[in-house]
Write a structure and sequence with these properties.
Length: about 475
């Protein structure tokens, strides 16, 4: 490591430590850190500016990906030293990172974790899913682990996790960031944990009935699946000790019919976590006490002393006007290994900087994040998200929990069509549900689609993250 690289790393880590308020327990029932959680808009911007002025030289000296990008754009690190300067830096998308990783296997040059640092204080290797390209690999340090635990404790405290809780973790302990970061945060909070890996639904249902956890940590799809397993066993999920459904990996909280179905099934409140492996592996977005309880409806806070969040227009990737919907972009200011500048996370939302009833001034993602750019479907020129189909289907009483969307092209005329398959006891071509489901979907996306009603339990059960779209159209 060169002297310049080492010096900028030291300065960056010193700056990170300056803005870490890390008590052993929450300061009060509302906020883990009143100094940071309750910071004013001006204070948050000042923290972001001070961190940006230090992180850009650090990236330039410690990441070949960033050094080459700065040079290619004709920018010096000092050109980006405040929030206002970020517009000079075009957003970084996944394809750019993927190309770098493929050109410089196995780790790429987009992080600042060298082999030397990995050997001295490496913590864990994580990977993206690879659903839209070659998986991107990230090596995080023990320093990152400590910041993850701290940020997640702040977020989970805001979601009403308390010391007397017991959390049943039913997420995969693979190379994905959510479970590990949450586990570190729970340890900091002193909250008991039941690991739920390597079990089938019946075993997990037995754990819930026997050991009475108060929080379930899983995807929304799995919370629905497990509830049905319990009912099949003669157990009532709503009569259990579970009071919080802590979900991530899929949108749910802002999809009214899905949220209601889950909360009614379990007799519990649904809260949500939002993040990504690249730039927000810790608590990117999180619910608070006011989420869903006041006039502003459902939203997630974004922790602005550790990240800068923006939205950009999906067509030109330029910043959207205040209050305008756009794709999420994150600049990560709380990492030794992955402090990304303007990474395109790619979920649609609308940002709101108004003060929240919970006492926080951190920006809020209104309506949460209910559609990824990668998931956008274009059918006969009409664009929509799978979550819109979910909203329509979930609102119809009596339908089963599962549904499928099948996209194809008709052989006769080449027109693209979609069939939505749902479950109901009154199934078959003559089912009265065909028209009802079709009308509900047409009202949501303004398209006529084919509807098939099949018998209950005909469709595959979603045990973890749902995959409900099958696209059989020819790729051009």
């Amino acid at each position: 490591m060169s002297d310049r690289a080492e010096n900028t790393r030291t300065e960056w880590l010193t700056t990170l430590a300056k803005f870490k308020d890390d008590p052993d327990q929450a300061a009060n029932s509302a906020m883990w850190s009143p100094r940071l959680d309750g910071a004013s808009r001006d204070e948050l911007t000042a923290i972001q500016n001070e961190k940006l002025a230090v992180v850009t030289p650090f990236l330039y000296e410690n990441s070949l990906f960033y050094r080459q990008r700065f040079d290619r754009l004709g920018l010096a690190p000092t050109d980006i030293s405040s929030v206002e300067d970020l517009v000079k830096w075009p957003v970084v998308d996944k394809s750019e990172m993927t190309l770098d990783g493929e050109s410089h296997p196995p780790f790429g040059h987009y992080t600042t974790m060298s082999d030397e640092i990995w050997r001295s204080r490496g913590w864990m290797l994580f990977s993206t899913s690879g659903t839209t390209g070659t998986p991107r690999i990230f090596r995080y340090s023990q320093i990152d682990r400590d910041y993850w635990a701290w940020a997640n404790a702040r977020a989970m405290h805001a979601m009403d996790f308390v010391a007397s809780d017991t959390v049943f973790m039913m997420t995969g302990y693979g190379t994905h960031v959510w479970a590990w970061g949450v586990q570190m945060g729970l340890a900091k909070m002193g909250i008991g944990l039941i690991p739920g890996g390597g079990m089938d639904g019946a075993m997990r249902a037995g754990i819930v009935a026997r050991f009475q956890p108060t929080v379930l940590c899983c995807t929304p799809s799995y919370a629905l699946y497990l509830g049905r397993v319990m009912q099949d066993m003669g157990l009532d999920p709503a009569a259990t000790s579970v009071r919080l459904l802590f979900c991530g990996g899929e949108p749910a909280m802002a999809i009214g019919p899905t949220r209601k179905k889950l909360e009614d099934l379990w007799g519990a409140r649904l809260v949500e976590f939002y993040g990504c492996t690249e730039a927000a592996p810790q608590a990117g977005g999180y619910a608070c006490a006011a989420t869903g309880q006041d006039k502003d409806g459902y939203f997630l806070h974004l922790m602005e002393d550790i990240q800068i969040w923006e939205t950009v227009d999906p067509e030109n990737l330029q910043p959207t006007a205040p209050g305008q919907r756009g794709l999420s972009v994150c600049t990560n200011l709380v990492s030794e290994s992955s402090p990304q500048l303007r990474f395109l996370v790619g979920d649609f939302t609308t940002l709101n900087q108004d003060a929240c009833a919970c006492g926080r001034n951190h920006v809020r993602a209104m309506g949460c994040f209910a559609g990824r750019a990668d998931d956008l479907i274009n059918l006969r020129g009409v664009k929509f998200f799978p979550t819109q189909i979910e909203k329509a289907v979930r609102a119809i009483p009596g339908l089963g929990d599962e549904f499928q969307m099948i996209l194809s092209s008709r052989k006769a005329d080449g027109m693209d069509v979609m069939k939505v398959v749902v479950e109901h006891p009154e199934h078959g071509p003559g089912s009265k549900l065909v028209e009802q489901v079709g009308d509900a979907i047409r009202a949501e996306i303004e398209l006529r689609v084919d509807i098939e009603v099949v018998a209950p339990d005909s469709l595959p059960k979603t045990e973890f993250k749902a995959k409900r779209v099958t696209d059989q159209r020819a790729k051009h």
